[in-house]
Amino acid sequence: MNTLSLMGITLAVVLTSVGLYGIFRSRNVIRILLSSEIILNSSILFLFSAASALGRTYTPVLFSVFAIGMALTEVVVAFAAIILYYRLKGRLEVS
């Protein structure tokens, strides 16, 4: 296991912690959405770092392409839901 893959795994764990903190402590819908995106991107980073540590560099490529496509779809649907929520409630705070 090389130092670069350990740094990637450590960074992925830190980013996941930051994302979870943002989800559980924020009341703003947009901050919650951005925190979930941080968690998704940290999972992709963790997958690549773990594959690099195991010596399998081409294994996570299909998963990452699928995950990035799902992230784009999630952003579009979430922003549509945010616009609808704002039209109904008049604010972006979650109660």
Automatic annotation (TrEMBL):
Domain of life: Archaea
Broad class of where this protein is predominantly found: membrane
InterPro entries the UniProt entry points to: NUOK/Mnh_C1-like (IPR039428)
Keyword Membrane in record: yes
Keywords: Membrane, Transmembrane, Transmembrane helix
One GO cellular component term noted in the UniProt record for this chain: membrane
Name of the protein in question: NADH-quinone oxidoreductase subunit K
Species, as recorded: Sulfodiicoccus acidiphilus
